[in-house]
Amino acid sequence: MAHRIYVWKEQQADARAAGATVSYRKAATLAEHTAAVTTLVLSSRNLSSAILFSASLDGNVRVWNLMGGCALCTLASHAGAVNALALCSTETSLYSASEDGTVRLWEASKGFTPLEW
Q1: Is 57 within 8 Å of 36 (Cβ atoms)?
Q2: With 70 as the cut, is the pLDDT of residue 79 above it?
Q3: Reported pTM
Q4: Which residue among 19, 64, 88, 113 has the highest number of C-beta atoms inside a 10 angstrom radius?
Q5: How many of the other CB atoms lie within 10 Å of CB of 92?
Q6: Residue 45, helix vs strand vs coil
């Protein structure tokens, strides 16, 4: 597992319709985790404004501006590796599960202050 996330962008959007080979270029490298990334969750299907959530063995969840390639914030509350993420259907809350035995609820409207189970 790598500490980095690579974001790839299609170079020719109309290539599929023409039946041609599609080529990609690296659009961003997201590299702020200090241990392997375990899971990713994408907030939106509109990639130009999408937010990406990543979990890691470092115990942190990072919130990324996907196409800007920058971390928006770090959700640091778990004492162990974070192995699972789930985004609610309204995309206003994120759940994270950790090897420390906790599940946390992170609500965007509350500044991502965690609630613990």
Answers
A1: yes
A2: yes
A3: 0.81
A4: 64
A5: 13
A6: coil
Using the predicted structure, report yes or no on whether residue 21 has a pLDDT greater than 80.
Answer: no
What is the CATH topology of the domain spanning 32-116? Thrombin, subunit H (2.40.10)
Integer CA distances (angstroms), 82 to 5, 12, 15, 18, 37, in order: 16, 36, 38, 42, 9
Q: Using CA atoms, how far apart are residues 97 and 85, in angstroms rounded to an integer?
A: 7
User: Is 15 in a helix, a strand, or coil?
Assistant: helix
Reduce the DSSP state of residue 66 to 3 states and report it. coil
* CA 8 – CA 24 distance, rounded (Å): 6
* Structure confidence at residue 47 as a pLDDT band (50, 70, 90): low
Sorted by where each begins, the domain ranges of the chain are: 32-116
